[in-house]
Design goal:
By secondary structure, the protein is α+β, with helices and mostly antiparallel strands. The protein is 30% helix and 37% strand. The chain contains 4 helices and 22 strands. A hairpin with a 2-residue loop joins strand 18 and strand 19. Helix 1 packs antiparallel against helix 2. The longest helix is centred in the N-terminal third of the chain and has 32 residues. The N terminus is likely disordered.
Length: 387
């Protein structure tokens, strides 16, 4: 600042003195007289110091008389009602109820594997065949015997209608035909176990056995892993305090960090049991998976809409302070005859979402909230609004 004053004063001196003073300085320097040069420098320095002192006095007088020069500078915004959606942030994993290992239902050698890993299959489709040990031939024989027994019964029934033969012959032929037919059905059920079929539509995730392997029912003989990727859901643990807020049908947003993708979803089901270990209940969020990119056990971030206010008043957290009594407050700029006065308003806050806080009391729609400069003003202090 002193350098600025010096430059200003020097300029004023030069202007005041005009060309003659410049000529005098030039002539003095040109004379080569050291004493004259020093004398002129001393005179000019004294003039400069005097003007600097006068400028400082003038600045002080202006500061005392012009109150606008000392007003704190602030910016404001007008608070207006708006829709406020609060979301509960949770972590969960993708699951599916249709994720199973397929086992053989009978012992034998695995003859053929009809599908490969990644194949899409339909419910009931044959996936593999096990050697049935000649039971197919037995079935053919049983079918022949059953057909003969049925023919015998039909003839005996015709004779019985004509009152020919005895009742015991009729009943015996009927029983024989039924027994043979039942034997065929039973053997067909056994033979059906020689085929491994898809219990639901899905994708073959793993082929665990090769043709020629001897398999049997039970652990260790898994042949396939079948997964349905179209019926996925995310299971999350919800704190018990949100029991009334997180209900079936609530909207939710799901973000998959690995995929860097988000989907909209809804709460499909909520649990009826509070886990005593973490005081939470479970919730299922159904997610669509049209391209199959969402996999079981994939980590997900879930945002469940637990609260909505159609006419909320929101202000930034940065403008809220707290007094010694623990009360929260914000400054409101009140206009009076063209003058802006900062007024401290004690407020009550609701829920927070991101950088904004819901105000439930202490501030009204249309109030001018002090934003920039809120930390430097005092109650009832005049301020200058920049915006």
């Amino acid at each position: 600042m002193k350098k600025i004053y010096s430059i200003l004063v020097l300029s004023l001196l030069l202007v005041a003195c005009g060309g003659s003073e410049n000529n005098s300085v030039s002539q003095t320097i040109a004379s080569g007289n050291l004493e004259a040069i020093r004398s002129m420098k001393t005179n000019l320095t004294n003039q400069l110091n005097g003007i600097e002192t006068d400028l400082v006095a003038l600045e002080a007088a202006i500061a005392n008389l012009d109150t606008n020069e000392n007003l704190p500078l602030v910016t404001t915004f007008e608070v207006q009602p708006q829709v406020f959606n609060h979301y509960l942030d949770l972590q969960g994993n993708v699951k599916t109820r249709e994720n199973v290992l397929l086992y053989p239902e009978m012992a034998g050698t695995l003859l053929t594997v009809k599908v490969k890993k990644g194949a899409r299959v339909s419910k009931g489709q044959i996936l593999a065949v096990i050697d049935n040990g000649g039971m197919s031939n037995q079935l053919s024989q049983l079918k022949t015997q059953a057909a003969l027994a049925q023919t015998t019964f039909e003839r005996q029934a015709a004779l019985w209608k004509q009152k020919i033969g005895s009742e015991i012959q009729y009943l015996q032929s009927k029983a024989q035909a039924e027994a043979q037919a039942n034997a065929v059905l039973q053997l067909e059920k056994v033979l059906a176990k020689a085929q491994i079929t898809a219990p639901f539509s899905g994708v073959i995730d793993q082929v665990l056995k090769d043709p020629g392997t001897v398999v049997s029912p039970g652990n260790g003989s898994e042949v396939f892993r079948l997964i349905n990727l179209s019926n996925m859901y995310i299971e999350v643990d919800v704190p018990e305090g949100y029991l009334g807020a997180v209900t079936k049908g609530k909207k939710a947003g799901v973000y998959f960090p690995v995929l860097q993708d988000s989907v909209n979803a809804v709460v499909r089901e909520t649990g009826n049991y509070i886990n005593p270990n973490n005081r939470s209940f479970s919730a299922e969020i159904a997610v669509e998976n049209p391209n199959g990119s969402i996999k079981p056990n994939l980590n997900a971030r879930v945002h469940i809409n637990d609260y909505t206010n159609e006419n909320a008043l929101l202000i930034p957290q940065s403008v809220i302070s707290e007094n010694a009594a623990g009360e929260q407050y914000a400054y409101v700029a009140e206009l009076n005859n063209g003058e802006a006065i900062a007024k401290r308003h004690i407020i009550t806050t609701g829920k927070t979402q991101g950088d904004f806080v819901e105000i439930t009391s202490g501030i009204s729609a249309g109030d001018l909230i002090i934003k920039e400069g809120a930390r430097s003003v005092k109650d009832a202090q005049a301020v200058k609004i920049l915006n």
